[in-house]
Design a protein that fits this description.
Blueprint (H helix, E strand, L loop, with lengths): L3 H28 L4 H27 L2 H20 L5 H22 L5 H22 L6
């Protein structure tokens, strides 16, 4: 059975990965001008499969069921929160993701010595912006 500190770390790291992975995917797809239905469908599939991948990797590294379950649940929960933002008008998506990053940053501050909430938020936002910009760039690729 994993100790409490490891479980707290898994909540933060898996949640962060869920937020960054799915918000970057969605941001890139928005930047590329993808249909909202496809964004939600792709985000849903990616959320589940990425959470499963992280949980399997966690189990293979520690062989502890509790950390495996926490890894899956944390990634998936935060990824779904991000995905919920895809249902909002586009102008609310970025503030929604920033709000979720703020929640996770505050949890990180409670759970660990690292209290640099601003650093966590800035790095996360820059990642989303880079994905959005990459999606915009991909629109330049001819369809035929």
């Amino acid at each position: 059975m994993g100790d409490n500190n490891i479980l707290k770390q898994q909540i933060i790291y898996s949640g962060t990965d869920g937020i960054i992975s799915i918000s970057s995917l969605i941001s890139g797809m928005i930047g590329a001008g993808i249909d909202p239905y496809i964004i939600i469908l792709t985000g849903s599939i990616a959320s589940f499969s990425d959470a499963l991948s992280m949980a399997i990797s966690e189990y293979n590294s520690r062989e502890e069921l509790d950390t495996t379950v926490v890894t899956f649940a944390s990634f998936y929960a935060f990824a779904l929160l991000v995905l919920m933002g895809a249902f909002l008008p586009k102008c609310f998506y970025v503030p929604w993701v920033i709000f979720i990053i703020l929640i996770l940053s505050m949890m990180k501050k409670l759970f660990s010595e690292d209290s640099n909430v601003l650093k966590t938020m800035v790095v996360s936002i820059l990642g989303g912006y880079a994905s959005f910009s990459f999606g915009k760039l991909m629109r330049l690729i001819p369809k035929n």
